[in-house]
């Protein structure tokens, strides 16, 4: 056997949603290319914030072939790229590891099939699900940046009493509601309610100039009221030099299904650009629908721009 192992991930699923079981498979080879059996292979799953969600030893189903079903993805997850790490060990030594990714999307988005339909991509030889998943995630990120307004501000006073940071008041209001569900988990949460799927967070500076994280809870995303405290739940002291909250604001007429549609059209546009750049692709290799679309590749981008107008706050001075 060689001096170290070579791990290859062999499962094909790359896109998951809440309630899905993440199934992974790897094969382990020595440096001579032979399938081998290390003492164990362990798999780790990390959320987009870098927090370990789960880790388990994999089951060897044949020489050098390992598989595992993680637990179901919980509700309240954060959409985006989740890291998978596989470690092959002999005795107590890690002889090699492999890092890979999955993309987690909202349960009701159905974006993989939607993008394939729009772009006319019938064959996974052209763009496989792994590549398509990352195209979709990049499109998601770009659409979110374009339609949501990033805000960092000092929160407004208690809407009932008018109190600010007086050492006892905990209720405040932001200036630009609604708060966007930027993490895509289906609800708006503050830091402290969730450390990763956080849509609004912030910090305060004490009298010595030291920064501290805020705990933000009881978020009313539509009207913009929030509870702000120190991490231990006590009120921010009146001696605080500064308090800032950070969130993304969305237009009141925002519609998440139109958001999904915008992501699908932008991802389809990116797929068509990639297909055009494949010089070996001939017109006989692509689906009939795709041949029609390639003649006018900007159709998808134009539709994406049209949808954006309906879900983004109108820009002052825009024509």
What would you say this structure looks like, in words?
22% of the residues lie in helices and 31% in strands. The longest helix has 22 residues, at 256-277. The chain is built from 5 helices and 16 strands. It has helices at 111-119, 129-147, 256-277, 288-294, 298-311, and strands at residues 6-9, 15-16, 21-29, 40-46, 52-57, 59-62, 65-72, 80-90, 93-104, 149-153, 171-173, 200-205, 211-213, 215-220, 225-229, 242-249. Strands 2-9-8-4-5 form a 5-stranded mixed sheet, with helices on one face. It has a 4-stranded antiparallel sheet with strand order 1-3-7-6, with no helix packed on it. A 4-stranded antiparallel sheet has the order 10-16-12-13. α1 crosses α3, α2 crosses α3 and α3 (256-277) packs antiparallel against α5. The chain has 3 domains: 6-104, Sandwich (Immunoglobulin-like); 111-146 and 254-311, no CATH class; 152-249, Immunoglobulin-like (Sandwich), CATH 2.60.40.3410.
> What is the CATH architecture annotation of the largest domain?
Sandwich
| Backbone shape | flat
Tell me the β content.
Answer: 25-35%
Instruction: Say how many strands there are.
Output: 16
Structural class: alpha+beta
Q: CA-to-CA gap between the ends?
A: 68 Å
CATH homologous superfamily title of the largest domain = Macroglobulin (MG2) domain
Share of helical residues: 10-25%
* CATH C-level label of the largest domain: Mainly Beta
Q: What value does the average pLDDT take? A: 88
């Amino acid at each position: 056997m060689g001096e170290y192992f070579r791990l290859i991930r062999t499962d094909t699923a790359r896109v998951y949603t809440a309630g899905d079981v993440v199934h992974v498979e790897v094969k382990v080879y020595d440096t001579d290319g032979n399938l081998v059996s290390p003492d164990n292979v362990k798999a780790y799953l990390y959320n987009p914030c870098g927090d370990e969600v789960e880790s388990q030893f994999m089951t060897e189903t044949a020489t050098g072939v390992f598989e595992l079903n993680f637990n179901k993805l919980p509700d309240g997850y954060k959409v985006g790229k989740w890291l998978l790490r596989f470690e092959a060990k002999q005795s107590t030594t890690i002889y090699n590891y492999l890092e890979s990714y999955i993309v987690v999307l909202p349960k009701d988005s159905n974006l993989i099939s939607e993008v394939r339909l729009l772009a006319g991509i019938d064959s996974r030889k052209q763009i496989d699900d792994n590549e398509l998943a990352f195209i979709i995630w990049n499109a998601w990120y770009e659409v979110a940046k374009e339609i949501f307004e990033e805000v960092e501000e000092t929160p407004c006073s208690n809407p009932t009493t008018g109190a600010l940071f007086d050492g006892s008041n905990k209720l405040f209001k932001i200036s630009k509601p609604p708060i966007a569900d930027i993490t895509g988990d289906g609800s708006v949460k503050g830091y402290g309610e969730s450390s990763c799927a956080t849509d609004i967070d912030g910090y305060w500076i004490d009298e010595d100039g030291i920064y501290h994280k805020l705990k933000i809870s009881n978020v009313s995303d539509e009207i913009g009221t929030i509870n702000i405290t120190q991490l231990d739940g006590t009120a921010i002291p009146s001696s605080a030099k500064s308090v800032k909250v950070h969130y993304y604001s969305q237009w009141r007429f925002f519609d998440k299904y139109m958001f999904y549609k915008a992501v699908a059209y932008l991802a389809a546009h990116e797929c068509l650009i990639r297909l055009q750049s494949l010089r070996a692709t001939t017109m006989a290799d692509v689906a009939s629908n795709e041949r029609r679309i390639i003649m006018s590749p900007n159709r998808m981008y134009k539709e994406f721009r049209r949808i954006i107008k309906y879900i983004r706050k109108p820009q002052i001075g825009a024509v």
